[in-house]
């Protein structure tokens, strides 16, 4: 007798389909990018694996360029290491948070209490926490263009919509207040202010901050103030903390040890809630939940905070005339702007230049291709301007942490590269 073939069961079909399943990234990551470590950076790594030396002018990592944390800061961490083996408060250790409160008081930031200070594993973790706690699906966040791209990426990851307001290169890269007003809608939850600015190096005066604050108060917006470069200032630039401007505006300020104290690997950042905190009770409860979920920030490195903020500020030795950063800024700016077709605002703060390139002269329509061609041909790594959500392909960012002689050589290499470069 012939054997009757049994129909394939639904469970068998499901098992077969699951066995062949392809795993894709979540849809919410479709538009998320971080070009500072994007495809061009990956190409640089491959070149290094092939034996090439790449000059990395793409990222503000102080360690490879010989900048070290103050010795007193290192000693503080080592001294407390044996007592830093367990979990601590989810917001951070008390001594560190108290030192941050005192720093805020020196900056005239209002309505700050130690319970309103949160430490994190770098400012980047805290930006992710804040956007997750603040934004519902399709809520909008005003972000400068150009921006530090993590703000845009974090907004998208949280389900929000980044809306980029214009910063005006012809006005020292100050925010365009009229553009901010025009782009504020009923869905807008807050506005990001990056001061001193990354990538342009602009430092905002008190009137600019006051104008933004007035609009934030009128529109019911939270102000998210990225102030990680607050101590890296040149010439006559003066930093004004956003939290000191208006006590009727709910403000969240971000800072840390990575830049001014040359300790990016410590991953120590903090955020401070100030101003109209009474209107943010529910939001703060959300922050507390997220802070608790990650248990606590890195414990040993938090012991650096009190010593860093309370001790001698060595960054001033670097930023005054004759200091390394001051002289390297001048060298990079002078040599880059001597190249035909390149102009650049001279930064008042930060460690970056954001040169503009004559795209008509060099027939550039794709700035990512431009920086990739520069990398392949001259082994110099920079970041394209559109990687900072700038709408035109006519800028690139340069970090001036290298020694002056190396910056001169890099500028000359870019000059000779551009002499024959025309993008097809």
| Helix percentage | 25-40%
Number of strands: 15
Largest sheet: 8 strands, mixed
- The structure class reads alpha/beta
> What is the radius of gyration?
24 Å
The overall pLDDT, averaged over residues, is 93
- Reading side by side through the largest sheet, how are the strands ordered? 2-9-8-7-6-3-4-5
How many H/I helical runs?
Answer: 15
Characteristic key phrases:
424 residues; alpha/beta; eight-stranded mixed beta sheet; three-stranded antiparallel beta sheet; 15 helices
Outline the fold blueprint.
Blueprint: H1 10-19, H2 39-49, E1 55-56, H3 71-80, H4 94-106, E2 117-121, H5 123-134, E3 140-145, H6 150-157, E4 161-168, E5 174-175, H7 177-183, E6 188-194, H8 206-219, E7 222-226, E8 251-256, E9 268-274, H9 281-293, H10 299-310, H11 315-319, H12 324-337, E10 342-343, E11 352-353, E12 356-357, H13 359-362, H14 367-378, E13 380-381, E14 383-384, E15 396-399, H15 404-419
Parallel strand pairs: 1-13, 3-4, 3-6, 6-7, 7-8
Antiparallel strand pairs: 2-9, 4-5, 8-9, 10-12, 11-15, 14-15
What does this entry look like structurally?
With 424 residues, the protein is α/β, with parallel strands linked by helices. Helices cover 38% and strands 15% of the residues. It contains 15 helices and 15 strands. Strands 2-9-8-7-6-3-4-5 form an 8-stranded mixed beta sheet, sandwiched between helices. A 3-stranded antiparallel beta sheet has the order 11-15-14. The chain has a two-stranded parallel ribbon with strand order 1-13. Helix 2 packs parallel to helix 14 and helix 3 packs antiparallel against helix 10. The longest helix has 16 residues. The chain is globular, with a radius of gyration of 24 Å. The model has no long low-confidence stretch (mean pLDDT 93).
């Amino acid at each position: 007798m012939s054997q009757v073939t049994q129909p394939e069961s639904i469970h068998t079909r499901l098992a077969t389909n699951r066995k062949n399943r392809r795993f894709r990234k979540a849809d919410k990551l479709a538009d998320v990018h971080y070009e500072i470590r994007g495809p061009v950076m990956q190409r640089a790594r491959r070149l290094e694996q092939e034996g090439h030396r790449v000059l990395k002018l793409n990222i503000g990592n102080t360690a490879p360029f010989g900048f070290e944390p103050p010795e007193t800061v290192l000693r503080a961490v080592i001294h407390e290491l044996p007592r830093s083996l367990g979990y601590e408060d989810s917001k951070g250790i008390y001594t560190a948070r108290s030192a941050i409160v005192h720093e805020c008081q020196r900056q005239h930031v209002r309505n700050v209490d130690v319970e309103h200070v949160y430490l994190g594993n770098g400012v980047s973790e805290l930006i992710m926490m804040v956007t997750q706690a603040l934004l519902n699906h399709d809520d909008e966040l005003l972000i400068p263009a150009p921006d530090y791209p993590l703000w845009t990426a974090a907004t998208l990851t949280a389900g929000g919509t980044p809306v980029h307001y214009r910063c005006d290169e012809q006005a020292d890269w100050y925010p365009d207040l009229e553009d901010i007003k025009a782009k504020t809608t009923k869905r807008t939850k807050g506005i990001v202010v990056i001061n001193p600015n990354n990538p342009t190096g602009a430092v905002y005066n008190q009137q600019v901050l006051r104008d933004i604050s007035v609009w934030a108060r009128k529109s019911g917006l939270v102000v998210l103030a990225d102030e990680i470069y607050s101590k890296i200032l040149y010439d006559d630039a003066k930093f004004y903390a956003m939290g000191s401007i208006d006590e009727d505006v709910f403000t969240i300020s971000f800072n840390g040890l990575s830049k001014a104290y040359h300790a990016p690997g410590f991953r120590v950042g903090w955020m401070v809630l100030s101003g109209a905190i009474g209107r943010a009770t529910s939001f703060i409860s959300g922050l507390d939940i997220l802070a608790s979920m990650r248990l606590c920030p890195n414990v040993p490195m938090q012991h650096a905070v009190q010593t860093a903020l309370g001790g001698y500020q060595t960054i001033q030795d670097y930023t005054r005339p004759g200091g390394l950063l001051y002289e390297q800024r001048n060298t990079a700016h002078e040599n880059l702007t001597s190249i035909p077709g390149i102009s650049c605002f001279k930064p008042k703060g930060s460690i970056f230049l954001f040169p503009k390139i004559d795209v008509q002269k060099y027939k550039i329509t794709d700035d990512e291709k431009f920086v990739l061609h520069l990398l392949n041909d001259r082994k110099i790594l920079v970041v394209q301007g559109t990687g900072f959500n700038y709408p035109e392909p006519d800028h690139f960012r340069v970090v001036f942490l290298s020694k002056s002689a190396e910056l001169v050589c890099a500028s000359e290499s870019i000059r000779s590269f551009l002499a024959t470069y025309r993008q097809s």
